[in-house]
Request: fold
Amino acid sequence: MFKKILKGLAGLLVTAVVLVIVVYIATGPQRLGSDSASASWLEDGPHSVGTAEFVFIDESRLTEENRGFPGKPNRSFQTWIWYPEDLPEPLPLIVHSHGIMSQGSELVNVAERLASNGYIVVAANYPLTNGGTEGGANANDVVNQPADVSFLIDSVLNLSGEEKPFAGSIDPNRIGLSGYSLGGLTTVLATYHPRWRDPRISAAISIAGPINAFTPQFYSTRNIPFLGIYGTADALIDYETNGLLVPERIRNSSLVTIAGGSHLGFMAIADPVFRFMHNPDSIGCQGVLSVLDEGTDDVFMAFGTEAEVVLLDPSAPAVCEKMPPLEASHPGRQAMILEIAELAFFESVFGETEDIRSAAKEQLETSLAADFEEASYLN
Reply:
């Protein structure tokens, strides 16, 4: 009898596993046809990807006290580096900035895709905005993150000898930034702020980052290629008063819009973790609102005065003001669009030949929307 029970349970377990696999496959994102122009952009690049971890410490700046937890005399960064193996020539560098309550490896899928195509990608946990922050992530510390970006660039450029994990050097004329959510704001500040910007930056991407606290004059401090990637079902960063403003407010910019794209849908873990949710931003809002104890306006006011063309729009919805969120599109499709858009944008700027840059520009401006009904492009 006992053996029969065990056999019965084993049979049920096998059935359950098979059912899970079937459901997983059946609910996966719709794949592209092999003949589509975008399909090749989702294939691994020609280079094997290596990874390395570092802890970089900036002894020149302190970490402030946070909600009763003591500060530190320095700023410490757990850092990830993705790189193409055995590629000796000078390579472009991309520094990615994470969102609040997240970590540097949040978009590992994008980092690996870039690295396999010849990029060095660096991302770190910022001291007071990462998910493991003592006392809870504090958005106010974003004012220190543009300098953190510059420090990370310096730290990677200074790697040498056995300490340097990648074979090639970094091309100082091909340094770009990518940022998600609060990291998108970090990218904007490090690119355009009149006092905090880093002149080495040659291209920048904001993924679902707030941009409406700054006037066109603020963004006129630089004239480099800028790409915004936003979703229309984003409950945290309102699309109409942020993403939709990118082409008209930021010079030399373009916008990729994902119809039904959610805020959390950009994260690498979104598919399959959030595959069956109406919109995962309902979870994201609970977490983010729990740490915005002083409100977002206080954060923005720390960036400067109206003389520095920092101006809040009182009509813009606050974080998570529009609830419940709209129904989200499939996070797997959202991830595919993000990966292609990032790679195509940076290749259109940093590609080694005119043919590479032109092909990438065509992919970003035309093929992406042709192959994904959720995607559109505007400049």
In short: Residues 14-24 have pLDDT under 50 and may be disordered. DSSP finds eleven helices and nine strands in the chain.
